[in-house]
């Protein structure tokens, strides 16, 4: 949708996505306002401010030329790896994890940057790989190293949710690149065999507790199962139309943990009910459908893989968070895009949005009908 009344640069912005996304962010700010007890600080105001700043960043990113982005893929990957190593050496510790770097007034979580970066570097890798080698080990082993190294660094923090997000993005890129199905079947079998070993020997005690709690949250409703139990109560008590703005008892009486971050959807559902939940899902559906359309219409392999991977990254955030708050997945600390309070998460998702706008601009410039994926 182009608006003829606007100047050409503004008319080229995908308003059909930006406007619903802005409404979602404002809706999220209203939920955060309520979660803070009817105050713009500390959540709602900073949430809207971050979105505005990162939207400007996304608009600037959308004008990057394709060759520059492709050339910058490996340097960007190396830079984020160095930041992850720096976290291990001098990173700040919070909540039992060492995930953040303090750079003057900026507090950065480098693992968040790796989510779009792994998509970028694998898009460049598979773009440069000759088509005849896609079915050989040369398409699998180097990509596995590119994915595995940052996953290990992130697991050391420890941050299982972000490590899984990086791995998911990498596997999606392999799939889109055309890796033979037998490799995915083999990987699935290896995961089934390795999962029990990882549970007993690789996971921390609190991570193992999350898995057992996911399987039977009612076994310890006041302990490890407390988060999921309270989240389900909040979502269920909202009914169709919710209890009303500012009337949520679960969050206001501190029954619901992390009502402004991981469990913001439960906070919303209690006050806005099924209607609010359907609005959130509708906007995410618009964004994901747009992202997939951009990928399908991309003018070349690099652009196609880049757009598909960025769309998959947003999807992973949304799917895991919603599954987590409804008890369909273990609690792994994945925020809900554009609604949860958090600068690193907002930055990552706006990088994905900016990259999709960038690929869409490349497509318009090339006048291309798209690749089939």
What's this entry about, in short?
The protein has 15 helices and 3 strands. The protein is mainly alpha-helical.
Throw out a few tags for this protein:
single chain; globular; three-stranded antiparallel sheet
Q: Would you kindly provide a written description of the structure presented here, covering whatever features stand out?
A:
- The mean pLDDT is about 85.
- Strands 1-2-3 form a three-stranded antiparallel beta sheet, covered by helices on one side.
- It has 15 helices and three strands.
- The chain is mainly alpha-helical.
- The longest helix has about 35 residues, at about 265-295.
- It has one domain (about 15-365).
- It starts with 7 loop residues before the first helix and ends in a 7-residue tail after the last helix.
- Helix content is about 65%, strand content about 5%.
Distance between the termini: 24 Å
Question: Helical element count?
Answer: 15
In terms of per-residue confidence, which ranges show pLDDT below 50 for 5 or more consecutive residues? none
How many domains make up the coordinates?
A: 1
Sheet of most strands = 3 strands, antiparallel
What would you report as the Rg, rounded to the nearest angstrom? Answer: 21 Å
Using the alpha-carbon principal axes, give the shape: globular
Secondary-structure content class: mainly alpha
Average the pLDDT over all residues and give the rounded result: 86
SSE arrangement, N to C: HHHHHEEEHHHHHHHHHH
Query: Level of helix content?
Result: 55-70%
Strand elements, count: 3
Share in β-strands:
under 5%
Give, in spatial order, the strands making up the sheet with the most strands.
1-2-3
